[in-house]
Amino acid sequence: MKTVKLSPCEENKFPDIPDLKFYRTEGDLFYFDAAQCLSKADPTANVSVEDFLSKFDHLIGSLCENNAIVKDELTVTDDSGAIYLDECLVIPFLAYLDRSFGGYVIERMEELLMYGFTINDSFCRFFHKARFGDTPLAQL
């Protein structure tokens, strides 16, 4: 695994997942902190980067082909030894860590394919609050 110098990204790419931190290399490649994600995972789940890479090998191969990425460049470390994964793996990795997240993403993809658009839960909450203020849905 290659060691690279990483700089934190200023903005969060996924505001609904505030603990997910992205970093940029000097060559403008983006990685996320897999070690931090693993530290927040259920300790009884027995998850690891190696297990993820093994279980999702077919999907990872497709992502590498589609994005012209060499498989060896998907994982990097920093000077402290923390593991970072290429940004193209963020959704599959989160689905690996949390099966309900994987189901949620598949439901949103189904909406996208059926209707041509989809919105996430925080956007729905924003619209509700803009229209009804803090009134709970049950009172409407």
Summary, kept brief:
The chain has 6 helices and 6 strands.
Overview of this structure, please?
The protein is α+β, with helices and mostly antiparallel strands and 140 residues long. Helix content is 44%, strand content 14%. Strand 5 and strand 6 form a beta hairpin. The longest helix is centred in the C-terminal third of the chain and has 17 residues. The mean pLDDT is 88.
Care to count the β-strands? 6
Task: Tell me about the largest β-sheet.
Answer: 6 strands, mixed
What overall geometry do the principal axes of the alpha carbons give?
globular
Kindly state the percentage of residues in helix. Answer: 40-55%
| Average residue pLDDT | 88
Number of helices: 6
Query: Ends: how far apart?
Result: 55 Å
Portion of residues in beta strands equals 5-15%
Question: Which labels suit this protein?
Answer:
single chain, 140 residues, alpha+beta, six-stranded mixed sheet, 6 helices
Topology overview:
Blueprint: E1 2-3, E2 6-8, E3 22-25, E4 30-33, H1 34-39, H2 49-55, H3 57-67, E5 75-77, E6 83-86, H4 90-97, H5 99-115, H6 121-132
Parallel strand pairs: 1-5
Antiparallel strand pairs: 2-3, 3-4, 4-6, 5-6
